[in-house]
Amino acid sequence: MKKAWWHDKIAYQIYPKSFYDTNGDGIGDLRGIIGKLDYLQELGVDILWLSPVYQSPFVDQGYDISDYYKIDERFGSMEEFDLLLAEAKKRNMYVIMDLVINHCSDRHEWFRKALKNPEGEYGGYFYFRKGKDGNPPNNYRSYFGGSAWEKLPDSDYYYLHLFAKEQPDLNWNNPRLLEELYQMINWWMEKGVAGFRIDAIMNIKKDPAFPSCEPDGADGLASPCHMIENVRGIGELLEDLKKHTFEEYGAFTVAEVFNMRKEELHEFIGENGHFSTMFDFSAHSLSLGEHGWYDSKPVEFKAFRNVLFHTQSECQDVGFLANILENHDEPRSADRYLPKYAKNDDGVKMLGTVSVLLRGIPFLYQGQEIGMRNCPMQSIDDYDDISTLNEYRLARSAGLTDSEALAVCCQNSRDNARTPMQWDASPHAGFTSGSPWLKVNPNYLTINVEKQQKEEHSVLSYYKRLLALRKSEAYRSLFTYGAFTPLFEEEEHIFAYERSLDGQSVMILANFGEQDTLLPVRHIADCPVLLNNQTKLHIQKGFLCLKSCQVLVLEKR
Question: Is the pTM of this model over 0.90?
Fold first, then answer.
């Protein structure tokens, strides 16, 4: 395998709006990120992924971009962004941006010009179609609910928006549009950005005939996934994108990709693939309901373990996955993946360990390193997420009471990941001196950075040791390039695997069960303990006794 600069790196996602506010307006800013770079360096991360900081009306929290070349004034200025790049570079850290190129904001100059003449030059940047018998062009449902087509006033024309109506989809069949996008991407690369997380990229290829699909809901509409999954030719678009932008700069690119076919893996993340890596969302898919959040099911441990083992085994001879437990679109991992008895510091450490030491690029999300949890909201009005509001309406229409629908949102809402970062026990968790844009989790008094920095056995202290182990001179190559082999799959509650390279082997052994489990680990007394989330190593008659919520990292002898 040809080595790349990003192979042995650890990434950390920053949601700027909720990270750290320096001017008291209740919204995080670029100055706040700059002020916390030393903290992030001490944590042990190398790559910083920023959720969108471009100019935006924030209908979808910045994923509706009105100007790709401007920093939104909520976050600061381009001069401050340049300073962030410079300060990160001083610390040998890389900054990647969120690249949202399936759609833009309806306030973007391109769309405003398109509205004046849907059949003109800028109309070709989007998908304008005439309705059929007074109805939309087809029966696609937006990902946020309702028709994916919005009618223009006093016109027969509709435009396509797979997300919110304020996010019109860009027409990737238009060469002029592609030139504009490539120019913009290269502009940011020239500025010093190291790469991109590429949002919703599998949605860029459409069937221009837009055939209707079999309805999959009571609303008579069908998910656009049916079209996206069946249309062919996206590889040509992605390869063209790569060759005109990323390739020249040696950029690190991570794609938001779902439902990837095994036969396509090499094309996407192989040595000469379209992208450096792609997120492993296989565990995320376990919690999806058939109709929405309201009929989602708790994630069962064996399903969680088995799906991750499957993707690891399937991809390890192809390329690198981006291993992820949390991001801005997900609830907190401690609440999603841990059973009730394991929702404690040991459980959080255990979950983090089995993820970070997998083969691939570890991605952490802000607050994960201190074990932040889902935030209880008292009213639907406390949420500020378009997707959550839609899921609440779906739950109520399905017959759930207000309290039941709120409980569903508390378990699944994206706003669980967007509550302000908990820095200390001062008002508003030290995030802002003003009024925070989103409610702070009331548990900040006990879960915060300042408190955990002082505690040797805190979640934060453990994460520092975990990342240091992965990056250590003795084990860096092993954890980067070493093979992945499942262990003890017959054990009902054990998540265990081996990483091995050139005669060196390390075992990761975790007990997700409520009871102690004996494991026949050969020569256990001679195995050096590299990491232990509990204080002791328990050996009984030559067997390893793994306590509930205990994880061990042992060098195999």
Answer: yes
